[in-house]
Write a structure and sequence with these properties.
It is built from three helices and no strands. The protein is an all-alpha fold. The protein has one domain. The radius of gyration is 24 Å and the shape is elongated. It starts with a helix and ends with a helix.
Length: 97
């Protein structure tokens, strides 16, 4: 029996392991993606629309802070929801019956 045959037989029977894909921007789903994209595109779009350089930079700074705050708000909401669900699961395990 060759090593190749043995490997294929054991590999075929075992279900392939899937690695979790972790990327901070994708953890919030499509909403998080669009918030991040809006923050990244602001420095490219604002100079095309607004001609005053001082106003451009002001709006770019506001957009970067706003997208960061919204993203953090969504993340905090997600974490709070996960903690509440974990507490509910824990309480349901402790209740006799």
């Amino acid at each position: 029996m060759s090593n190749e045959t043995h490997y294929q037989a054991t590999h075929h029977d075992a279900s392939p392991r899937r690695h979790a894909y972790h990327h901070p921007r994708t953890s919030l789903g499509a909403t998080g993606h669009w918030i991040t994209t809006a923050g990244m595109l602001a420095p490219l779009v604002f100079p095309e629309v607004i001609k005053d350089p001082a106003r451009q930079w002001r709006l770019i700074r506001i957009a970067s802070v706003a997208t960061a705050l919204v993203s953090q708000g969504f993340w905090a909401h997600k974490v709070q929801k996960e903690r509440e669900e974990a507490r509910e699961r824990e309480l349901s395990c402790q209740i006799p019956g």
